[in-house]
Amino acid sequence: MPAGLIALGLGSFGIGLTEFVIAGLLPQVSRDLEVSEAAAGWLISGYALSVAIGAILLTAATTRLHRKAVLVGLVALFVLGNLLSAVAPTYAVAMLGRVVAALCHGSFFGIGSLVARRMVPPERASHAVAVMFAGLTVANVLGVPFGALVGERWGWRATFWAITGIGVLAVAAIAVWVPAWAGAVDQAHRTGGLRPQLRAFRSWQVWLTLGATALGYGGMFGAFSYIAYTFTEVTGFSDTDVAWLLVVYGSGLVIGNIAGGRAADRDRDRTLIVSLAGLAATLVAFGLLAEGRVASVVLVFLMGVFGFAAVPGMITRVTDAAGGAPLAASANVSASNVGNALGAWLGGLAISAGLGYTAPLYVGAAVVALGLAVMVVTARTAPAEQVAAARAAMAAK
After folding, report:
1. Cα dihedral 123/303/95/157 (nearest 10)
2. How far apart are CA 185 and CA 115, in angstroms?
3. Host H or E run for residue 155
4. Nearest partner of 214 among 379, 306, 343, 64, judged by Cα
5. Spatial separation of the C-alpha atoms in residues 243 and 252, rounded to whole Å
6. What is the tens place of the pLDDT at every residue in 293-346?
7. Quick one: CA dihedral 161, 163, 169, 175, positive or negative?
8. Taking the chain, what is the end-to-end CA distance rounded to the nearest angstrom?
9. Calpha distance 112→8 (Å, rounded)
10. What pLDDT digit, counting tens, does each position of 25-52 carry?
């Protein structure tokens, strides 16, 4: 495995911590900053919306720059944001830290996925993206539960100090291990700027894939945002149990990411459809069986498996449909975080309306079902040459 992929994985590990660890810390943050559960949830939604905006703006602004240098700068911005969160004396400063850290997120994964693909043969593109995203999934297995434990013992700010340190290590690893040639910008993007990238958005396949990403990932994340409350208020687990339950969920993410990346290299659209269908069914079952401890453990694991199995395939699908434009890759991350914000917002509305702490699961299932419908249409309307190319790639394997 190229060392550069490990460096990118370390960066995605830190970013994964920043994005997901807050879900396990929401009760502490809410009490410490003296805000409501819904307001605390906006630290998740605000992050997601900032990712959506930053992904487009920063990728557009850096389109002619060397991608390795851009990645180093993005992770440095991530370090600054988490430092602000660690020292935040008020809710407003905590939100500012979340926003600053989020600005790098979309561009890092969008640009990083293109750099990762260059380090491996074309037929292993989805697998390379999965390796980079493995840091994100490992963050849920080890980092997020560890962050919850650190927060339980030393306070939620200590968790963000630890993430800041990881960000510093990631900056050094990317600077040393990512080869310069993998970050080189091709001639068309270097001389044409944004124009050739914007042309990629004329394709309906790009827009449909972005829509499926937003709905599929958003439905899963909307349910996940309030999972700590589901476990403690419905299933009857204690606050300290949340840490190991997040390990179970994170284990599912790791397995789903790896399996989904390999499956997408064989039959991408079928993998995406099966993943979204499995996620919708899992969320419904979780809502129905949330009072049972064993069932909840099994279903949160499956939620992780199906929830992340689609990620590598979605990214390679949208970049292939866009002709490799970096802006499209970042737009895919942006779309997922628009969905995240929508899902967290809808889940919070359902709870505020008195529908209970299983309501986000049902809301998430409905959103994912819409994403499944969009993905089916996307697959069936794919251009004939795209389908032929996919079949040829499968036959070559």
Report:
1. -100
2. 10
3. none
4. 343
5. 15
6. 999 999 999 999 998 898 888 888 988 888 777 777 778 877 887 887 788 888
7. negative
8. 20
9. 7
10. 877 888 888 787 778 778 877 887 787 7
Rounded CA-CA distance 343/337 in Å is: 9
Residues 6 or more apart in contact with residue 321 via CB below 8 angstroms: 200, 203, 205, 206, 209, 328, 386
Q: Cα separation of 253 and 238, whole Å?
A: 23
Q: Which of 350, 334, 138 is nearest to 226 (CA)?
A: 350
Question: What one-letter code names the amino acid at 116?
Answer: A
Indicate the length of the chain as a whole number.
397
Eight-class DSSP state of 65: S
What Rg, from alpha-carbon coordinates, does the chain have? Answer: 20
With tokens 């914007």, the residue in question is 198
Rounded CA-CA distance 305/167 in Å is 27
Task: Tell me which residue of 352, 349, 354, 376 sits closest to 364, measured CA to CA.
Answer: 349
Work out whether the CA dihedral 271, 305, 369, 341 comes out positive or negative: negative
The first and second tokens of residue 230, run together, are 């589901």
CB atoms within 10 A of CB 177: 15
Take residue 22 and report the two structure tokens written for it.
């807050």
What single-letter DSSP state applies at residue 238? -
How are the residues of the chain apportioned to helix, strand and coil, as percentages rounded to the nearest 5? 85, 0, 15
Written as six digits, the tokens of 282 are 């899992």
Classify 358 as helix, strand or coil. Answer: coil
Whole-number Å distance between alpha carbons of 4 and 23: 30
pLDDT digits 0-9 by tens, 169-193: 999 999 999 888 777 776 545 545 5
Tokens 């306070």, residue located: 155
Task: Report which DSSP code applies to 194.
Answer: T
User: With the CA atoms of 140, 167, 48 and 67 taken in that order, what torsion angle do they form, in degrees rounded to the nearest 10?
Assistant: -120
Other Cβ atoms closer than 10 A to 57: 15
Express each pLDDT in 199-247 by its tens digit. 778 888 999 999 999 999 889 988 888 888 899 889 988 887 887 888 8
